[in-house]
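> forwarded from #structure-qc
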């Protein structure tokens, strides 16, 4: 890992990285799908948790063309 690669990001940055809104991010945290850590009043999201979350999402498939 590069020294400039963060191991955790803020809620705002996590939302930007994976394209979720703030409310949805908190819903996913509450559901246990995304890990969150507290440092004082700050909520941090481990980047590895975001990567795992995205990896587990269902894959989009084009519907089969009807004959």
């Amino acid at each position: 890992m590069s020294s400039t690669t963060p191991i955790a990001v803020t809620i705002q940055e996590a939302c930007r990285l994976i394209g979720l809104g703030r409310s949805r991010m908190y819903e996913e945290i509450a559901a246990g799908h995304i890990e969150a850590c507290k440092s004082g009043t700050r909520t941090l999201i481990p980047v590895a948790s975001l990567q795992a979350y995205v990896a587990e999402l269902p894959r989009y498939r084009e519907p089969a063309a009807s004959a």
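QC bot note: Residues 8-56 form one domain. The mean pLDDT is 92.
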